[in-house]
Amino acid sequence: MKLNRATAPEFKLPNKIPLPAVNDIRLQNGLSLSTISAGTADVLRFSIIFDAGTRYQSQFFVAGSTLNMLAEGTEKYKSEEIAEQLDFYGASVDFDIDRDWSYITFYSLARHFEKVMEIAEQIIKYPVFPEKELNIYKQNQKQQLIIEREKVATIAREAFASALFGKNHCYGASAHPDDYDKLNPVLLKEFHKKYYSSNNAFIVASGKVSEKEIKIISECFGKNIWGNPQKNKSEQQKILTSPEKIIYIPKTDSLQSAIRIGKVLFNKNHEDYCGMFFLNTILGGYFGSRLMKNIREEKGYTYGIYSNIVCLRDSGYLTISAEVGNEYVELTLQEIKNEILRLQQQKIAKDELSLVKNYITGDILRSIDGAWKIADIYIDVRQINANLKHIEQIFDEALKMTPDKILDLANKYLDINTLTTIISGKC
């Protein structure tokens, strides 16, 4: 049969997603190792995730500084030796932290994986936090934060978190640059000793993973219990949302104003998470969203406006964020309100519903394209005691979403009177 190239092939949404197998292993010391073997390149990614986010620190910057100082010297290697060896073996290491978790990720060629894991073991288990390097780190970080806190976006973000959760809540607290001056090696060593342990972590290895690499990881991290033998316990703090619904923070020298609007919601375990994920996409979750079309493309008030559902361990929140010219602040606020009211009062049209379904399903398929992307997704769902089936649930809910469901969710969660608004700029 001759192919008619003048006719486009029929478009169909997939009805399921091809999730790879995840091999879960319990090592000798009880540490969980999950492997995702995919790809053809001889490269690996080793991620170890500790229950050691900023929520656990006794004072500001202790958790982040502990993490970022791990490679600045160990019992066996100086910082320059660590850098030289990683460079020699074509490897790299990344450090990241959020309110709940800290992340250490090594990238390695398969043929050098054993050498890289020996360095990783030193960095993770035996850091010394040298005072000279810590002082340099403190000075650099303090200067960066001083500059960052001059930005209206930073001012609004900190005030928004405080208004939603309370200034003393682990999700709402913010620090001052001078808090870096209070850090010392003893504080970092104590935090490391308490939270960086085999009882307080899980490992995800992805890429060209075989029995050989599993054995290497087990030798370095899975034989004996290391660190604090007691498992970390997390206590949920009381949320104290500010009764003020509109908060202005003047910054007279600013050419733009930062806007943050939102409310406390829930995390990914909630029954309405998938629906709100879809609703948020319509509102401001992608470049073709209603907020972007209205406020950026039609009105020209901003270069970008987005909404997002941020999920934390114990909670979550909706945030709408934008930076606009000072003369457009009130107009922008009104248009945001108009778009929310439209979601509550009018059912979404069939064409737009189909467009958003296409976007979400395509985005999910892109997010599982490759071993390292799959590992990121797996780490994300593992933190809520779920597995990759959670991604299937979002996918299935997107395919089944209806105009009535969207209308119900908008009225249930987007009541204008429950939203907190922060404006930082020339008010």
Structure description:
The protein has 14 helices and eleven strands. The strands form two sheets. A six-stranded mixed β-sheet has the order 1-2-6-3-5-4, sandwiched between helices. The chain has helices spanning 62-68, 79-88, 113-125, 131-148, 152-165, 185-195, 211-221, 273-284, 290-298, 329-345, 350-367, 371-382, 389-400, 403-413; strands spanning 23-26, 32-37, 43-50, 92-97, 102-109, 201-207, 246-250, 256-264, 305-311, 316-325, 420-425. The chain starts with 22 loop residues before the first strand and ends with a strand. α3 runs parallel beside α7 (211-221), α8 (273-284) packs across α14 (403-413) and α10 packs across α14 (403-413). The mean pLDDT is 94. It folds into two domains: 23-221, Metalloenzyme, LuxS/M16 peptidase-like (Cytochrome Bc1 Complex, Chain A, domain 1); 246-425, Metalloenzyme, LuxS/M16 peptidase-like (Cytochrome Bc1 Complex, Chain A, domain 1, 2-Layer Sandwich), CATH 3.30.830.10. β1 (23-26) and β2 (32-37) form a beta hairpin. With 427 residues, the chain is of the alpha+beta class.
